[in-house]
Amino acid sequence: MNPSSIFLTDEEFEELFGTEIAGITRALNETGTDKCSACKGKCCIEIGCGLYSEKFTFCPIYDIRPRECRYHFCNSILGEAPLSAEAKELLEKPIQELLDSDKARLSELFTQFPQFPLDSQGLASLGIKEEVNNIIQAFEESELDEYQARGLLKSLCLDAAK
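Above: the chain sequence. Below: its structure as tokens.
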């Protein structure tokens, strides 16, 4: 497992997956901005994100979210995003085919942490499940405000990646 390859900035994501894929996911994110806040994170629930709380106005680690989160969009967003048919098809290709020159590197990264890193099992593998649960609980019980909870969760994820 290589936790440092889990939490990705926009720049790191683009470096790994290329400008074209990064541009497509940016367009999807822009399309989803209003929809995601209106539905209160239905996708986050569906993928079992351990950082999910309906109290958050948006993802608490959005600027370092994992690759899985960057690729996960509901059909409503996929249908409304201003993407060509070619761009939508590109998103459906296996990740290993996206960058021919980096196949070995991508394969190495993805086999080291095959499950979703933010579900219960993934958080346990990172050694942060209990701390995440405590932060989420304190936030939901109003012991922490959103800014504090976001900061603690982001720090926890970044520390796990060291």
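Confidence is low (pLDDT under 50) at residues 94-101, 106-114.
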